[in-house]
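Quick question: what would this complex look like in 3D?
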Amino acid sequence: MTHPTDLISVSYDELTANLSKGKIVERRLSEIRDSFLNPDLIDKMPTDEDPIVYRVTAVEPSNGTGDLHYGLGIIYPGKVGPEYFLTKGHLHQARETAEVYIGLSGEGYMLLENEKTLETRMEPLGKGQIVYVPGHTAHRTVNTGDKPLTYFGVYPANAGHDYGAIGKRNFLKVIVEENGKPTLKDR
Amino acid sequence: MTHPTDLISVSYDELTANLSKGKIVERRLSEIRDSFLNPDLIDKMPTDEDPIVYRVTAVEPSNGTGDLHYGLGIIYPGKVGPEYFLTKGHLHQARETAEVYIGLSGEGYMLLENEKTLETRMEPLGKGQIVYVPGHTAHRTVNTGDKPLTYFGVYPANAGHDYGAIGKRNFLKVIVEENGKPTLKDR
């Protein structure tokens, strides 16, 4: 098993979520429109722009048993109707693998949905907050503040990302603004 | 596999390294005297106090395959002669398991020593710095600044801590102050 020297040491910025190394994935609003409760509202938004909703930079130092990968995410502030900007969300391909999320700046929540019991939880993930995502749990991150939300996620190297399973039917619940505050509601 | 509800959501403070939940281990100078290059210097220190050198608070949400544990560490500033305050250091019992360290505040380094090749590295771990500790690598953290150094460590639930192997012979190299800056030297 090789451990490429250049990924032992990496630097990060907690506000911009920039990493000195890693693979970047950026999602614009048009690319994740079906993740929202009401995609039609996107067409009615008063701008021709297609804003970046979120960006994740992933570092994968090695892929053996016992190895770990990690990512630094940023979700920009914004809403589609009453629904906050969010990540697509995913399950891990290796379903039993967990993930630790560490909130660095901003305000937000994670939406957790157990794929067996369908139990849903809404857990705070802002600056100073940690969320443990157990195995078999679809997870989505939501920015409920007016600044970028940034966070680390650390996961086993063999976890893999499965966007299909949850993408097809979407999460059962949504996090929307109601009476000025983030509220968990049925889709 | 159970995932105790009360460890899904935990809050932390980046400056004090306090966690809202978790198991605390604290090490005073007298308990880790043999980790230093010259323990005799401790006896000559001009105080009757036995300061806390470091504290780690560990959170262990679950113990199944694919699960993760994490800890938040704080090392206080200080020196024994030219040698900076440090952690005892350890290998993982499950030797192939890695660990991701994320620096939150302060200034410091990690000392990495591969148990097979004996290759040593000194990698920065202060605010904004990440160190990937591959498997089979003894690791120690050192505070080289004048404020507390705080950091997260995330590791597979099955990693385990082996303090014996490296404790007996200690690390091959030390990080000491030389000409006012942290320097890696042979023991």
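Answer marked as accepted. The interface with chain B takes residues 1, 3, 7-14, 59, 61-62, 64-68, 70, 92, 94, 96-100, 102, 112, 121, 123-124, 128-132, 134-135, 152, 154-157, 159 of chain A (CB under 8 Å).
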